[in-house]
Amino acid sequence: MSALGRLLTLRASASAAAHRAMASAAAPPAPAAGAWQVRAALVRGLPASFSKALQMHAGGPAIDAAAAAREHEAYTALLERLVPRVVELPADEAHPDCVFIEDTAIVTPCGVAVVTRPGAPERRGEVGPVAAALERLREEGAGAAAGESAAGGAPLVRAVHRLEPPALLDGGDVLQVAGFVLIGLSARTNAAAVEQVRAALARAGARGPDGAPLRVEGVPMPHGLHLKSACSALDDSTLLASDDAAGRAVVDGLRSAVPALAARLAVEFVPSDPLAANVLRIGGAVVMQASPAEGFVRALCDARGLRLHALPRAAELAKADAALTCCSILLA
């Protein structure tokens, strides 16, 4: 086993042990029908240099890295309650944004990973350790298939692809829902990435929950940092969108670019709070952060048999234009 592999294994074991009492007190909820089963999550430590994280608007509010670290610890602790296996990669002080691991890779529910090429040049150095972790998971899965491991189920990662220039892609621009991989064409993500992701998934034979090939489509993003800054999937039939210019533009773009999917999705515009339109769906659970819109989202979850978990407001992470999905890569 490589040094990185030993580090990840030890960190995952220690993290699970530290929260065993919490996990036993609140077992993961039974998944709702059609829920995306999540078997593992990748997260990354928050560096002390986080106060220097990129901000969409120059001269944004000062970031308290210590407070952000506490927000991230609460996030990781909840993941450890809801997900069987959480692997935390070490922080990199040279890359203040490295905690936003979502931007470095996408992984389909069938285990095909695509390592991204972030749109901000200063973030491209974040990718290497994440790619190495995904390769280790791929090797682990290959060993299980060969009878070398007691791990059950399909491999978490069965193939790893990497984007090449001129493609630019932040994982925050990728939304997977109902057999589609939607890619927001934002200031950080371009059409070349859409083509490369489409080709990579086709070569790997990536398929959705219905057994059909995954469809990759670009969606215009005239406002906001990322696609998931304005929307996320509550389940495979419901899209949450922020009730503002960014959210409405995304929905209009979806209806224009992917009408077949748009016709299948109920769109719920979340009032009062754009951050509340970004949720994590984990089996039968939905995670949001404390918000004036919590009652609205809770009613939607109750109607669908989903269990809502509300984290404390991640105000410091938000100063770096982050929402909940930014801080993890979920593996089905």
From TrEMBL:
<dbReference type="GO" id="GO:0016403">
    <property type="term" value="F:dimethylargininase activity"/>
</dbReference>
<keyword id="KW-0378">Hydrolase</keyword>
<dbReference type="GO" id="GO:0006525">
    <property type="term" value="P:arginine metabolic process"/>
</dbReference>
<dbReference type="InterPro" id="IPR033199">
    <property type="entry name" value="DDAH-like"/>
</dbReference>
<dbReference type="GO" id="GO:0016597">
    <property type="term" value="F:amino acid binding"/>
</dbReference>
<dbReference type="GO" id="GO:0000052">
    <property type="term" value="P:citrulline metabolic process"/>
</dbReference>
<feature type="active site" description="Nucleophile">
    <location>
        <position position="326"/>
    </location>
</feature>
<comment type="similarity">
    <text>Belongs to the DDAH family.</text>
</comment>
<feature type="active site" description="Proton donor">
    <location>
        <position position="226"/>
    </location>
</feature>
<dbReference type="Pfam" id="PF02274">
    <property type="entry name" value="ADI"/>
</dbReference>
<protein>
    <submittedName>
        <fullName>Uncharacterized protein</fullName>
    </submittedName>
</protein>
<dbReference type="GO" id="GO:0045429">
    <property type="term" value="P:positive regulation of nitric oxide biosynthetic process"/>
</dbReference>
